[in-house]
Write a structure and sequence with these properties.
This protein has 460 residues and is mostly helical. The protein is built from 16 helices and no strands. The termini are far apart.
């Protein structure tokens, strides 16, 4: 316990105490906007179909444009990208609220939903990228880097518990529009605070067209990159694309588990006549997941990422299987709460594998792709399992969750994971005073040479 606290103190010492706070508060709108938009449009239009379309376009915008924002952050730096995205997202969210309250037709509302999703500022993936860069710059070991992933995964889990809870509370006390208005304010204030934090300097970006020092120009830089990417070249071995794609697939499947569990929990609680319990059940799962994720930082380094990935996916399969036999509220609470213990370890391990397998210069883009895979899986499974729940009851939705867990385990078993980092992290040295130059040897210089205006000794 003492060692775990010491490790997290090291992480906070790297980031500063305000960065995790800013990033957490800026993540909340991501969790609030999806659920809040569905509740708002359903309330104002009276149509669940319209609400589903708007929620779907919001998810699609995030899935399609998230990696683009990540690539821009890699090239231009996090600060300008997050500032621009936060401003657009705040305005788009406010416009969505105004449009819904004003009774706009489905098509304009769907367009506003797409812009809202496309401009989500990716605080979670970018916070991971920034914290990992800070750890590598400080020369921290793999234990501290692992703690960074654990802390970021915990912040994600807590935000996805409290975000929907805030939406539900606002809808209960006042109106769903209040929740989305709060989301717009949070992303404007704390998204900007995250962008302007001094640690953003460590992710200043590396323009794609920049040539290496000494290269004659952009064309030479592009040629060098093509040579580095050629099969058999040293640069081609600097990353593991198969691992990256497998991890994205695994995150898609975890998102599918999220979506299927949401549909199944909603269907079962509705059948039992207690639909209001659905959010509480899901929140209990999130709390346990966050607690286990925080404790994951205490695991010794000998438990490698390959082993963690396989154990996490196996646990998800074993712990989700009882959902197929769950037909009452108390067993539902028990099974879903315990299942949460498998979610955070898989999520944290997947992002850690992504960080290990990709080149540092493309880390933000890779993290954004990983996050988008999770969202895509959740949206896809939510739509499919909702129909299965209508046709076959809650068991139909829960079967999707169990099938996704089994597929994730097979993927983890079939993927070869490197035992060590294939490339050295791209370190951005910390600002420090320049060392004093070494004293030059004393050489006798004739006076007539020092007096020559064009000589090599002039001006010394």
């Amino acid at each position: 316990m003492v060692g775990t606290v010491s490790t997290y103190r090291h992480v906070i010492a790297l980031t500063g105490p305000l960065l995790p706070l800013y990033s957490f508060l800026a993540r909340l709108p991501v969790a609030m906007s999806q659920f809040g938009s569905v509740l708002l449009v359903a309330e104002t239009s009276g149509s669940l179909a319209t609400a589903g379309i708007v929620g779907g376009t919001l998810s699609a915008g995030q899935v399609l444009c998230g990696p683009v924002l990540g690539r821009l952050a890699d090239r231009r730096g996090q600060r300008p990208v997050v500032l621009a995205a936060a401003a657009v997202n705040a305005v788009a969210t406010a416009a969505l609220v105004a449009g819904a309250l004003g009774g706009l037709p489905t098509a304009p509302l769907a367009a506003l939903g797409a812009v809202t999703g496309a401009s989500v500022p990716l605080i979670g993936p970018l916070a991971r990228t920034r914290s990992v860069a800070l750890a590598h710059r400080a020369g921290a070991g793999e234990g501290v880097v692992g703690a960074v992933h654990s802390l970021e995964g915990t912040l994600d889990e807590v935000s996805f518990v409290f975000g929907p809870a805030l939406v539900g509370l606002a809808a209960l006390v006042a109106h769903p529009a209040l929740a989305l208005g709060l989301a717009a304010a949070l992303v404007a204030v704390f998204g900007s605070a995250f962008a302007l934090h001094p640690t953003a300097a460590v992710t200043a970006g590396s323009p794609a067209g920049a040539a290496e020092p000494g290269a004659p120009g952009r064309a030479a830089g592009r040629a060098a990159r093509r040579r580095a990417a050629a099969p058999g070249s040293r640069g081609a071995r600097a990353a593991h694309p198969r691992v990256v794609y497998a991890v994205r697939g695994s995150l898609f499947l975890q998102g599918a588990m999220f979506g299927a569990c949401q549909a199944g929990i909603a269907a079962l609680t509705a059948r039992l006549g207690v639909p209001g319990q659905a959010g509480i059940v899901y929140a209990a799962m999130g709390v346990v997941s966050a607690a286990v994720g925080l404790a994951l930082g205490a695991l010794p380094a000998r438990f490698g990422l390959r082993l963690r990935w396989r154990v996490a996916t196996a646990a998800a399969l074993v712990l989700s299987a009882p959902l197929l036999l769950t037909h009452a509220l108390a067993p539902l609470y028990a099974v879903v709460t315990v299942l949460g213990a498998a979610y955070a370890p898989h999520l944290i391990t997947a992002f850690a594998l992504t960080e290990r397998a990709v080149a540092p210069a493309r880390l933000a883009e890779a993290m954004a792709f990983a996050a988008s895979s999770l969202v895509a899986g959740q949206a896809t499974a939510l739509a499919a399992s909702g129909r299965l729940a209508e046709a076959y009851g809650p068991t139909g939705a829960f079967a999707v969750a169990v099938g996704a867990a089994a597929s994730a385990l097979l993927l983890a078993l079939a993927t070869r994971v490197p035992a060590a980092r294939p490339h050295a992290p791209a370190l951005r040295p910390a600002a420090a005073p320049a060392p004093d130059p070494a004293p030059e040897p004393r050489v006798f210089i004739p006076k007539q040479q020092t007096a020559s205006p064009g000589s090599r000794y002039a001006g010394r």
